[in-house]
Amino acid sequence: MTISPITKQLFTERFLKTVLRAPSRFNLPASSLRFSLEQLTKLIPQNKSVKVRPIRLAGLRAEELKPQAHSTQLIFHIHGGAFFLGSMNTHRAFLTQVAARTQMQVLHVDYPLAPEHPHPEALDAVFDVYCQLLDQGVLAKDIILSGDSCGANLALALALRIRQEQLPQASGLILLSPFLDLTLSSESLRYNRKHDALLSIEALEAGIEYYVPTGMDRSDPSISPFFADLKGLPPVHIQVGSKEILLDDAQRFKEKAEQAKVDVEFKIYTGMWHNFQMFSAWFDEARRAISDLSDFAHRLDQD
């Protein structure tokens, strides 16, 4: 029996709301939510054509995901999870799909999570990884910074740190379902509250409480890069689903980046929820999103 796309989507949304979003609305320990996410992402199939090699970078556990073709381009992806969830385990399968579609090497790391490691430890860790890549002879023009959800926050904050330290800048930024404003001032947090199948406001609030040190202003650009001066950033590719509670984070950032004369490519995917790209095995819009980010990455390679 063939299942219609709308039936498949409705089933998936109900499943995600039950196993992940609903538990995140209660004051459960971080360890419990981490376990739930690890179990959920085991359902995502890995692309077997991509070779996974464990390495260490800047003292962190890391993995190289190598496709069949050889490319000098490297996508450094920072996983999401509201600053206290996620790991290489949760994102490996998704990133093998990215590596297979782009035919570029993908690198990801297990950076330190809150609450055990509040700001700025995660940002410091990914900055150290970037510096080590440069030290190893990787050219900045061959590095694309990428991240989903809070990982997009860290990827953008990393680009700002690179600019601040006057290091060679990465060639581009890929921001998937970005969480960029920790003051939670986006209107979509309210009007999409019941529509986003994966992410709850409570999960964001928990992440902020865990991640932001006591007394620190939530509008500080190092934790809310939406409020940063964006001038001089490399080209940015932004993806967001129309049902996301973070829809306005993405739209507002796009407008601000354009005002700063940043080259921005912005995509909204109809009917999609937070981090929908991870479900490319089942949904056309998710496959299209990976194809779109691949096209962006290859345009950077041609510049």
UniProtKB/TrEMBL annotation:
Active site: which residues? Answer: 149
* GO CC term, one of those recorded: cytosol
Question: What keywords are assigned to this protein?
Answer: Hydrolase
Which GO BP terms sit in this record? triglyceride catabolic process
SUPFAM superfamilies from the xrefs? Answer: alpha/beta-Hydrolases
Pfam families named in the record: Abhydrolase_3
Q: Which InterPro entries match?
A: AB_hydrolase_3 (IPR013094), AB_hydrolase_fold (IPR029058), Lipase_GDXG_HIS_AS (IPR002168), Lipase_GDXG_put_SER_AS (IPR033140)
Q: Quick check: keyword Hydrolase in the entry? A: yes
Which molecular-function annotations from GO does this UniProt entry contain?
A: sterol ester esterase activity; triacylglycerol lipase activity
Which residue numbers delimit the Alpha/beta hydrolase fold-3 domain?
A: 75-277
Which PANTHER family does the UniProt entry name for this protein?
Answer: HORMONE-SENSITIVE LIPASE (PTHR23025:SF3), TRIACYLGLYCEROL LIPASE (PTHR23025)
**Into which family does the record put it?**
Belongs to the 'GDXG' lipolytic enzyme family.
Q: What is this protein called?
A: Steryl acetyl hydrolase
